[in-house]
Write a structure and sequence with these properties.
One of its GO terms (molecular function) is beta-glucosidase activity. The protein has 15 helices and 14 strands. The chain is of the alpha/beta class. The protein has one domain: TIM Barrel (Alpha-Beta Barrel), CATH 3.20.20. The chain has an eight-stranded parallel beta barrel with strand order 1-2-3-4-5-7-11-12, surrounded by five helices. A two-stranded parallel ribbon has the order 6-8. Strands 9-10 form a two-stranded antiparallel sheet.
Length: 485
C-alpha cells in the first residue's frame, strides 16, 4: 500500500524568479548588444491599446536605432541589478531562498547573437552572480532564452523564423554550459515558449510585417525552437553530468463555461493547443491532434533530416511552468468577456480578478498540477506565480501587502494539496521576488515583489530597496517548509 505524502518534501526548492531584461539594466555596458526587449517602449495607460507586449515593425526598429523616436525604454535600465546584485542576493538569502531563477542575457554573451566569439565581460558578470548565489547556498536555475533574442538575429534572420538561429543558440548554450558547468545544475531552454503564438516578436524576435503568413511562420519558428531545445538538452547532459534540463510553459488551464458539450470540446481544444508545447518537450514528437489543426489552418512544418530523431531522443528532465490564471471559454457570444486574461475568454463568475484583470484561481493550480502529472509522470516545477498589484508606501516606509500574502498563501495551500494527491512537485519560485519592470506593460507600478524598489513608471526614484510585509511572511514559509502560512 502506498502512503500518501503529507507535505512538502525536505529538499523542496523555495525561491523566486526573474528575467535579465526586466531587472539587470546596463543595456550598453561592458560590450552587451541590444536585444528585442530593449526596443519595447513604455506606453502610458491612457495610450495603451492592448495588455500584452506590442508587435514591432521593421520600420519602427529602424526609427528607434536612428534616434527618431523619443520614448522611454524601461527594460534597458531595469532596476540596476547589474550593479546591485550583491545587495539583492543578500536579501534573497535573508528570506532563506534555496533557489533563484534568473536568465542569462544572450546579447551580453554574444552581442549580435551570431558572433563567433563570446564577450568575456558578459561571461565574467554571470560568474560573479553565480558565485554570490553559491556563497549563500542558493541554487541557480538559469533560463537560456527569456524574451531576450539578440536584435542582431532579428535583423539578419527575422529571429527564429530563420533556421540559422538554431546554430547560434547552440553555440551560445555550449559556451555557457562549459563556462558554468561547476556552478549551475538546473537549466530551462526557453521561457513560456508558447507565448510566441500571442506575440511572435516577444517569443521569437520575429517582425510580422516581414512575413506573409503569421501562423505558418510562427509554427515553423517554434519547430526551430523545439529542435534547438532538444539539441541543447543533449549538450547539457554531455557537458554537465547530473544536470537537469526543463521546458517552460505559460500554463492556462481552460474551463468550459457550461456543461454544453460544445463548450466542453472548445475547452478541450484550447488545452490541447496549450499542452502541445509540453507534449513536444516531454514526449518528443508532434501529437496526432496537431496534424488536423495544421491541415485545417494550412500550416506545413518543414523539417530537416534528423529533426524527428533529435526531438525524440532528447526529452526534458522536468516540466516547469508559470501559473497566474485560468481561462474560461464559451461558444456563446452572449457571455461577458474578460478584459485582463492574456488569451481572452469569458468572465468566470466564481473568481475574483487582480488590479490588472487577471482572474485569480488557486484551485486551478491544483487542477493544473494533477493534469500535468497524470499526462507526463515527470517532476514538476512552478517557476512563476505571483500577484501584480499597486503597493502603497506608508509615511514610515512600511508596505502592508496583505493582498499579496493572501494570494500566495492560497496558491501554496493548493500546491500542498496536489502533493498529497501524489504529484511530484520539486520547487516553487515566486515571480518577481523584487519589484521589476513588467514584461507585458513595461511599467513599474505593477509590482510583484517581497522587496520594494523605489522607481516609478517614468523612471524616477532612488532605486533604494526596502522590505514589504510579505518579505517576513515568505521567510517564515520557507523556514517552515510550507507548514506555516
Amino acid at each position: 500500500m502506498t502512503t500518501a505524502k503529507k507535505g512538502f518534501p525536505e529538499n523542496f526548492l523555495w525561491g523566486g524568479a526573474t528575467a535579465a531584461n526586466q531587472l539587470e539594466g546596463a543595456f550598453d555596458k561592458d560590450g552587451k548588444g541590444l536585444s528585442t526587449a530593449d526596443m519595447i517602449a513604455h506606453v502610458p495607460k491612457e495610450k495603451r491599446t492592448g495588455g500584452h507586449a506590442m508587435e514591432i515593425s521593421s520600420s519602427r526598429i529602424e526609427e528607434i536605432l536612428s534616434g527618431k523616436i523619443e520614448e522611454r525604454f524601461p527594460k534597458r535600465f531595469g532596476i540596476d541589478f547589474y550593479h546591485r546584485f550583491k545587495e539583492d542576493i543578500a536579501l534573497f538569502a535573508e528570506m532563506g531562498f534555496k533557489v533563484f531563477r534568473l536568465s542569462i542575457h544572450w546579447a551580453r554573451i554574444f552581442p549580435n547573437g551570431y558572433d563567433q566569439e563570446p564577450n568575456e565581460a558578459g561571461l565574467k558578470f554571470y560568474d560573479e552572480v553565480f558565485d554570490e548565489l553559491l556563497k549563500y547556498g542558493i541554487e541557480p536555475l538559469v533560463t537560456l532564452s527569456h524574451y531576450e533574442t539578440p536584435l542582431g538575429l532579428t535583423q539578419k534572420y527575422n529571429g527564429w523564423a530563420g533556421r540559422e538561429v538554431i546554430q547560434h543558440y547552440v553555440r551560445y548554450a555550449e559556451t555557457v554550459f562549459n563556462r558554468y558547468k561547476n556552478k549551475v545544475k538546473y537549466w530551462l531552454t526557453f521561457n513560456e515558449i508558447n507565448v510566441m503564438l500571442f506575440s511572435p516578436y516577444t517569443g521569437g524576435g520575429i517582425l510580422i510585417d516581414k512575413v506573409d503568413n503569421q501562423l505558418q511562420t510562427t509554427y515553423q519558428a517554434l519547430h526551430h525552437q523545439f529542435v534547438a531545445s532538444a539539441m541543447v538538452t543533449k549538450l547539457a547532459h554531455e557537458i554537465i553530468p547530473g544536470s537537469q534540463v526543463g521546458c517552460m510553459l505559460a500554463r492556462m488551464e481552460t474551463y468550459p463555461a457550461t456543461c454544453n458539450p460544445v463548450d466542453v470540446r472548445l475547452a478541450q481544444h484550447e488545452n490541447q493547443i496549450n499542452l502541445f508545447f509540453t507534449d513536444m518537450h516531454a514526449r518528443g514528437k508532434y501529437p496526432n491532434y496537431m496534424g488536423r489543426y495544421f491541415e485545417e489552418n494550412n500550416v506545413v512544418i518543414h523539417k530537416e533530416p534528423g529533426d524527428d530523431e533529435i526531438l525524440l531522443n532528447n526529452t526534458v528532465d522536468f516540466i516547469s511552468f508559470s501559473y497566474y490564471m485560468s481561462v474560461t471559454k464559451s461558444a456563446s457570444a452572449d457571455l461577458e468577456e474578460t478584459t485582463g486574461n492574456l488569451t481572452g475568454g469569458v468572465k468566470n463568475p466564481y473568481l475574483e480578478a487582480s488590479d490588472w484583470g487577471w482572474e485569480i484561481d488557486p484551485i486551478g493550480l491544483r487542477i493544473t498540477l494533477n493534469n500535468f502529472w497524470d499526462r507526463y509522470q515527470k517532476p514538476l516545477f512552478i517557476v512563476e506565480n505571483g500577484l501584480g498589484a499597486y503597493d502603497k508606501v506608508e509615511e514610515d516606509g512600511s508596505i502592508h501587502d496583505s493582498y499579496r500574502v493572501d494570494y500566495l498563501k492560497k496558491h501554496i495551500e493548493q500546491m500542498k494539496e496536489a502533493i498529497k494527491d501524489g504529484v511530484d512537485l520539486i520547487g516553487f519560485t515566486a515571480w518577481g521576488p523584487i519589484d521589476l519592470v513588467s514584461m507585458s506593460t513595461s511599467e513599474m507600478s505593477k509590482r510583484y515583489g517581497f522587496i520594494y524598489v523605489d522607481l516609478d513608471d517614468e523612471g524616477n526614484g532612488t532605486l533604494e530597496r526596502s522590505k514589504k510585509d510579505s518579505f517576513d511572511w515568505y521567510k517564515n514559509v520557507i523556514a517552515s517548509n510550507g507548514e506555516q502560512l
